[in-house]
């Protein structure tokens, strides 16, 4: 492995005196000044770090190119999604060979009719470094499309409206909006969310085509900074939903989609730790909720004309350990996405008589399976996706009445793929408190389990998000070089139910980090790898995980990739002007409360950097990132450069034209993965190892 000392001297961010005192605790923060993006020295430092990273990685250019070619070779470039029927049209997205961005299309009459291109995002992106289209929604009469577009990765969208008959963009352009918009059934009115000065979506407006957007009617204003507001539409098309959501709390309103002038009607007021969402069916709502102690959620029904809590009737009971993650209502069936034994399941419930069954046919021990929301209500067909770490994604149409399925699409691997060369395993590590933690593994069948294999260990463990075992065309470039690819399903996610999440948040957050370390130790003890042969990776809250575990146990890991890492936890959570801070008090705690402050102080990666050896590290940031601001990873790297006692590579790459999600073009994203993998292989002395 090449030492960092063989390359140019890394940048050094100057220290400036700054101290924050909270609850009598004085924290010296000499890199606080990096928060000022208007300070020329801030940008100078970020550019210097980028130049250093480029210089370090330059000798690995051919390896990066090889990995890029491998991954791109596994993509069917001229691909398309399975068309979705809505009325007389079939909508789909396709890509052209060499194209970075999707093309939105439809066909009339059947999915084999003549193609009509609605929006070619490649044309929209010409001359731009970043382009993202969101909320692409056609009007109910199929004559118009409204969509949002973001050109810098800030997740601040401008809504545009297309006339599908003329192909022209109308003058109804609305800036400063967020994800989500929905049409009323008059085909002239749509609802959308607007950001406040802190980049929080708290306003819901109603726009009528041709009207001045500055005069749009305010439908709802969320005044509690812990909540974001959004819009949705029922699968039946009857209602527009206005939902306010915070961390583990929600509140829903509905209005008549046939009457754009109607006023939102409250279903049930918000309450602490009370979460619910809504589907409609006939004269009733079907509600998924966690009231009555239903920590893993239950279902209720309620008359639409009198929807308050007192009228809720139990419909599907709470079953501990079977978290209900979502519902979709159709004319005759209710689809329930849930989990059993930590794995996803799809349940189909016949509404006429309560007959219930699970979609069967899974023959793997570890997999990912999910229903896909359809565009039609009056149908017996459910579309669902299935995949595993070794099984390319498949899309099925499932007849909920006959229980027959039709394969509509199987992911193609143009460069060739033989799943028989690989095996997956689902193993269980025992955490230090006795909890069994599942780990998903992918490996070649010829890789020995004798401690000699390098291992890529991914983790997240926050917000109750599940890291399911999805097929990855990227991971094969490591696995084919002898790596074992592993996902640690640590607490803080919700793979095993609500308790799994609750035991990895707030004053239990350290369980997340302990689980990851204990999973690494288990994989070593069972011969899957060895200490110093583990590449740990995570992004955002998973980047915080990376920072916490290398402060605690840097000896286990051979290198670390931390993408847009949330590492300056205290400073971020003490700043209530940032977009996510107040909303996330229920995830991390409010450090204005001394108990939470002291606890967060024990694990905040930036505050716990130590004078010790650290493994090689690749850190990324996005200059326009509204979720994890660029200055968190920048300050962290600056402090690591000063405190660490090793000479290992420490790289910071700030993407100057994107935000939290990185590059927008599909091939540009592959370049970022190839860069990470090349760094990992170099760190393990495997830069010359062929795939």
UniProtKB/TrEMBL annotation:
<dbReference type="InterPro" id="IPR029058">
    <property type="entry name" value="AB_hydrolase_fold"/>
</dbReference>
<dbReference type="InterPro" id="IPR001375">
    <property type="entry name" value="Peptidase_S9_cat"/>
</dbReference>
<feature type="domain" description="Peptidase S9 prolyl oligopeptidase catalytic">
    <location>
        <begin position="471"/>
        <end position="686"/>
    </location>
</feature>
<dbReference type="InterPro" id="IPR023302">
    <property type="entry name" value="Pept_S9A_N"/>
</dbReference>
<dbReference type="Pfam" id="PF00326">
    <property type="entry name" value="Peptidase_S9"/>
</dbReference>
<dbReference type="InterPro" id="IPR002470">
    <property type="entry name" value="Peptidase_S9A"/>
</dbReference>
<keyword id="KW-0720">Serine protease</keyword>
<protein>
    <recommendedName>
        <fullName>Prolyl endopeptidase</fullName>
        <ecNumber>3.4.21.-</ecNumber>
    </recommendedName>
</protein>
<keyword id="KW-0031">Aminopeptidase</keyword>
<dbReference type="InterPro" id="IPR051543">
    <property type="entry name" value="Serine_Peptidase_S9A"/>
</dbReference>
<dbReference type="GO" id="GO:0004252">
    <property type="term" value="F:serine-type endopeptidase activity"/>
</dbReference>
<keyword id="KW-0378">Hydrolase</keyword>
<dbReference type="GO" id="GO:0006508">
    <property type="term" value="P:proteolysis"/>
</dbReference>
<keyword id="KW-0645">Protease</keyword>
<feature type="domain" description="Peptidase S9A N-terminal">
    <location>
        <begin position="11"/>
        <end position="410"/>
    </location>
</feature>
<comment type="similarity">
    <text>Belongs to the peptidase S9A family.</text>
</comment>
<dbReference type="Pfam" id="PF02897">
    <property type="entry name" value="Peptidase_S9_N"/>
</dbReference>
<dbReference type="GO" id="GO:0004177">
    <property type="term" value="F:aminopeptidase activity"/>
</dbReference>
<feature type="region of interest" description="Disordered">
    <location>
        <begin position="1"/>
        <end position="23"/>
    </location>
</feature>
<comment type="function">
    <text>Serine peptidase whose precise substrate specificity remains unclear. Does not cleave peptides after a arginine or lysine residue. Regulates trans-Golgi network morphology and sorting by regulating the membrane binding of the AP-1 complex. May play a role in the regulation of synaptic vesicle exocytosis.</text>
</comment>
């Amino acid at each position: 492995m090449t030492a960092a000392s063989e390359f140019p001297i890394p940048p050094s961010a100057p220290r400036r005196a700054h101290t924050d005192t909270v609850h009598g605790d004085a924290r010296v923060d000499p890199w606080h000044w990096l928060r000022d993006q208007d300070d020329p020295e801030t940008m100078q430092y970020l550019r210097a770090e980028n130049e250093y990273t480029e210089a370090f990685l330059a000798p690995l250019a051919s390896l990066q190119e090889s990995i890029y070619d491998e991954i791109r070779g596994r993509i069917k470039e001229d691909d398309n999604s399975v068309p979705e029927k809505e009325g007389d049209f079939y909508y789909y997205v396709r890509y052209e060979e060499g194209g970075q961005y999707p093309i939105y299309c439809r066909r009339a009459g059947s999915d084999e009719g003549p193609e009509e291109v609605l929006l070619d995002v490649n044309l929209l992106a010409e001359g731009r470094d970043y382009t993202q289209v969101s909320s692409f929604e056609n009007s109910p009469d199929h004559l118009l499309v409204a969509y949002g577009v973001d050109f810098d990765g800030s997740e601040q969208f401008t809504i545009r409206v297309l006339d599908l008959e003329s192909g022209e963009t109308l003058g109804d352009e609305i800036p400063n909006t967020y994800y989500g918009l929905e049409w009323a059934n008059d085909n002239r009115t749509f609802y959308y969310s607007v950001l406040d000065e802190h980049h929080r979506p708290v306003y819901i407006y109603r726009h009528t085509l041709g009207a001045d957007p500055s005069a749009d009617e305010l439908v709802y204003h969320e005044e509690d900074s812990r909540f974001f507001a959004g819009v949705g539409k029922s699968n039946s098309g009857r209602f527009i939903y206005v939902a306010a959501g915070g961390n583990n709390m929600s509140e829903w309103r509905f209005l008549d989609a046939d009457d754009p002038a109607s006023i939102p009607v409250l279903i049930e007021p918000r309450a602490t730790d009370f979460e619910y969402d809504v589907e409609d069916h006939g004269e009733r709502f079907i509600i998924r909720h966690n009231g009555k102690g239903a920590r893993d959620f239950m279902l209720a029904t309620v008359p639409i004309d009198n929807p308050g809590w007192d009228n809720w009737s139990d419909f599907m009971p709470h079953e501990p350990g079977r978290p209900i993650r979502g519902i979709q209502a159709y004319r005759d069936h209710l689809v329930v996405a849930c989990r059993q034994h930590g794995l996803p399941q799809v349940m189909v419930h016949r509404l006429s008589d309560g007959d219930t069954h699970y979609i069967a046919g899974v023959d793997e021990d570890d997999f990912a399976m999910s229903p896909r929301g359809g565009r039609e209500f009056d149908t017996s067909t459910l579309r669902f996706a299935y995949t595993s770490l070794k099984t390319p994604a498949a899309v099925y149409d499932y007849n909920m009445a006959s229980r027959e399925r039709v394969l509509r699409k199987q992911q193609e691997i143009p460069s060739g793929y033989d799943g028989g060369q690989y095996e997956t395993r689902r193993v269980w590590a025992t955490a230090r408190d006795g909890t069994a933690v599942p780990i998903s593994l992918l490996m070649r069948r010829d890789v020995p389990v004798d401690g000699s294999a390098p291992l890529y260990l991914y983790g997240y463990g926050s917000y109750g998000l599940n890291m399911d075992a999805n097929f990855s065309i990227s991971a094969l470039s490591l696995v084919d070089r002898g790596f074992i690819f592993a996902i640690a399903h640590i607490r803080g996610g919700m793979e095993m139910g609500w308790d799994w999440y609750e035991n990895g948040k707030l004053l239990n957050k350290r369980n997340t980090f302990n689980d990851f370390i204990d999973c690494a130790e288990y994989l070593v003890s069972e011969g899957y790898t060895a200490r110093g042969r583990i590449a740990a990776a995570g992004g955002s809250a998973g980047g915080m995980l990376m920072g916490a575990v290398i402060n605690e146990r840097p000896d286990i890991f051979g290198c670390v990739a931390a993408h847009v890492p949330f590492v300056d936890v205290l400073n971020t959570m003490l700043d209530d002007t940032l977009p996510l801070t107040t909303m996330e008090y229920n995830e991390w705690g409010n450090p204005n409360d001394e108990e939470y402050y002291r606890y967060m102080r024990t694990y905040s990666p930036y505050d716990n950097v130590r004078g010790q050896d650290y493994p090689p590290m690749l850190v990324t940031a996005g200059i326009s990132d509204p979720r994890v601001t660029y200055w968190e990873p920048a300050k962290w790297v600056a402090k690591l450069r000063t405190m660490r006692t090793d000479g290992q590579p420490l790289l910071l790459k700030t993407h100057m034209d994107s935000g939290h999600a990185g590059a927008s073009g599909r091939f540009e994203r592959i370049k970022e993965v190839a860069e990470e993998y090349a760094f990992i292989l170099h760190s393990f002395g495997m830069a010359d190892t062929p795939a």
